[in-house]
Amino acid sequence: MAETVKLFVNGREVEVEAGKNLIDALRVVGIEIPHFCYHPALGADGNCRMCLVGIEDGRPPLVPACKTPAQPGMKVLLDDQKIRKIQRDIMELELINHPVDCPVCDQAGECRLQDYYMEYDLQDSRMRVPQVTKGKRMDFGCGVVHDQERCVLCARCVRFTRQITKTGELGIVNRSDQARVTIFPGRPLNNRYALNIVDICPVGAMTSRDFRFKQRVWFLQKDEGICHGCSTGCAIYIDHHREKNGDDVIYRYRARTNMQVNGYFICDAGRLSYKRENENRQDLTLVDGVVVDFEQGIAAALEKMNKARRPLLLVSPDATLEQMWAIKRIATFYGATLSGYSDAYRIDDDGDDFLISDDKAANRYSLELLEIDRDRESFQAALAHADLLVNFDNDLFFSPINESLQRLLGEQDRISVCSHQLPVFSGSSVILPCASPSEYGGSIINRHGVLQRFRRAVRRNADPRDILEITHLLGGAISSAERAWPGIRQSVPVLRSVEPEQIPVEGLLLNNSEERDVGP
Amino acid sequence: MRDRSQLQAAGQPFTFDAERNDEFERLCTRYPIRESMIMPALWLAQEQQGWISAEVIEYIAERLDTYPAKVYELATFYTMYHLRPVGTYHICVCRTLSCYLRDKQEIVDFITDEIGIKPGQVSEDGRFSLEEVECLGHCGTAPVVQINGEFHEEMNVEKLKAVLAHLD
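ok -> structure tokens follow
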């Protein structure tokens, strides 16, 4: 527990963490100080003036809370008459040229300006002169659309490109009421984290081309999830919505703050990977190319597996720890060879030193922990030798590098348990649809060894089964994620004392060693 | 304040000539923070070319290892930088409070009527250009007009007529 200090807010004593600025420190105890420009990742800028508070200790009458560290005994005034007046005045200033187009603004419902207007202002406009007009729907590149008129010039976006991505595409040009955020002509946003700008913009000035006008935010159900785009395992929000009688559709991923994994941001590729959850899904159960009931599919698969003398089970490096364990158990049950071969999930030199990783598999670390073989040669040898391949959603052709494998696969009798219609699964004699990561829960371990747990977010009409349930139907002993844990604890020393229900929201760092680059 | 963000291209790459390059290098030693050199560098470029083109901004950003957008910010913020070619006589009229209250608008209107140029424009013959600028620091003797760097204080239309008449 960090050191704490006691101070007074509006006469009430509170205990907060020492050294933090007032905005962050007081938020923890449920006291919000309004602000636009301050963002914990970008530091204090002090340009919006919205967070001005009074402090009764002889310092200037008003100080910006974002630049004022919490100190013992401090007497902070938030509700004072003069503070309320300042807040009203700042709001009036911000709204002088701001178009009141909340009904058609994509940010309505999650806009600070809108919230603060309701909370602090509520006055009619006194403006009798024409508003300053600026650029609308400007394409800033990377899917970011800018509306200059809605901008409150908090400069969060500008600071983001300078401090976080270090690409500096944005700047504020001109001065006074002509000031506006823009790009240098001919040099649009060009970085792999650009859509975070949309997240950090406190108003509707920065919107995502991908999400714009697709859905009103108050209709979205916001669930916590973990990005499966690469082995960093960033914490995300999964925003989805189910129309009446329709299917549950994911509309976007947003960054969820997790200081142990991704901080405040996620990469654009991960953010847009929600599309994978919606598109190209395998909904039908097929036996020899004929559509059948799921139960018939299971029966056909069972028959094949019971007949097979040398079955080979292939596990996906995206599967959860519990799923991997269940597949491992079922492999033992059938006396099958088990492989976690997944070279294709790696894109060399794609990663950076921030969030993006070369390894596009979410849970390769668990393959190593469960001692599941990941070697190419042994997989290929096993494949040549096997008479049945049961593929649990492993996309061997994530990148087109495996032509020799493709030939081998073509000759093999295959059962595919798959969430998506992918080339690798076509030609399988039995295809069983399964759930994609947003549709099941479980635990994954990222490349730094952080164990995170996520829950099911999405339920579809044609509800696909979790791989874990399917292994159970195919004769496996594990029927649920909870039931997998006693076995996991027993066989993996580092997880021996882990209670899945007690894993903190930020995840559990399994060991303190340096980052492990878990090989294929 | 008009919008100054419409950058023009000169159509040819910009580099400092030998003299300005030496001056640039000399000034660099005086600024421990390299980005502080943006303004003097813009000034040098304007001295050489007469105005700040898109190429100048890119060149300076590269020389100072900073972002073009940052140089762009400063060039558009300060009215002393010309973002397009100016006339032989560049007339700056202060538009900030004291001058505003003491009828700077009459002077601007006079120039617009007489020479036919609005703030930001250059006369057809290329002799005059007009800019409304931020505070010139002569509030005590407002309104003030600056022509090619020379200050004319307590200006009014009559005095301006006389000043213009004396320009060749």
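Chain B has seven helices and four strands.
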